[in-house]
Amino acid sequence: MERKGLRGGAAAVVGLSATVALAATAVAGAAVLRFADGLRDYDTAAAGPFDHATARLQLVERPDGTTAVLHVRGIDASAAGRTFGAHVHNGACGTDAPAAALGHYNADAHAGHVPVVVSAQTEVWLDFTVDATGAGDSSTAVRFPVQPGAHSVVVHAAPTDPATGLAGARLACLPVEW
């Protein structure tokens, strides 16, 4: 993988695969990271609403935190009106390999805090509701940076339970690595 000015002044593009690209641009003291690709299916043996979906994630990293914006397109029309949980996870994603994404990215865990608090303030939660066109959008702002590494955005079968952070089975994922 090639890295050029990832956090620097001019725009840079880093190739991750034939279909995944990441761009980082400095914007008023912030790094803007963009990821776009087809979602990886966690169950290729059965048809699901995300079989032909694509996703884009933008992370805007500032000294005081991170803003995440997720756009998912090409979701099967049968899912219109449903809300799905979506979270940044600690591991990479791959087809038919939901465990590879590991657990949720949690700022408390990465900072070594005990106990680890599970909440929308310590994790990146991006739940979205599918509209009639097969699209879903979400955004959130957190007060921590997401550390570089092989991460993913995992789409779950249910909305996130605010008390536990759980959102049901893992359906699909978007690789996000920088």
**What overall form do the CA principal axes indicate?**
globular
Distance between the termini: 10 Å
Number of strands: 12
Largest sheet: 6 strands, antiparallel
Strand order of the largest sheet: 1-2-3-5-6-10
By secondary-structure content and strand pairing, the structural class works out as: mainly beta
Q: H/E order of the elements?
A: EEEEEEEEHEEEE
- How many helices? 1
Strand fraction equals 35-45%
Q: Determine Rg (CA atoms, Å).
A: 16 Å
Task: Give the low-pLDDT segments.
Answer: 1-24
Helix proportion of residues, in percent?
under 10%
Mean pLDDT: 87
Could you explain how this protein is built, in words?
The protein is an all-beta fold. The protein has 1 helix and 12 strands; from the N terminus they run ββββββββαββββ. The strands form 3 sheets. It has a 6-stranded antiparallel β-sheet, with no helix packed on it. A 4-stranded antiparallel β-sheet has the order 4-12-11-8, with no helix packed on it. The longest helix has 5 residues. The protein is globular. The N and C termini lie close together (10 Å). The relative contact order is 0.22. The N terminus is likely disordered.
Keywords:
single chain; about 5% helix
Task: Summarize the entry for a quick read.
The chain is built from one helix and twelve strands, in the order ββββββββαββββ. It has one helix spanning 107-111; strands spanning 12-15, 21-27, 30-38, 40-41, 54-62, 65-73, 83-84, 86-89, 128-129, 136-142, 150-156, 170-177.
Question: What is this structure's SSE topology?
Answer:
Elements: E1 12-15, E2 21-27, E3 30-38, E4 40-41, E5 54-62, E6 65-73, E7 83-84, E8 86-89, H1 107-111, E9 128-129, E10 136-142, E11 150-156, E12 170-177
Antiparallel strand pairs: 1-2, 2-3, 3-5, 4-12, 5-6, 6-10, 7-9, 8-11, 11-12
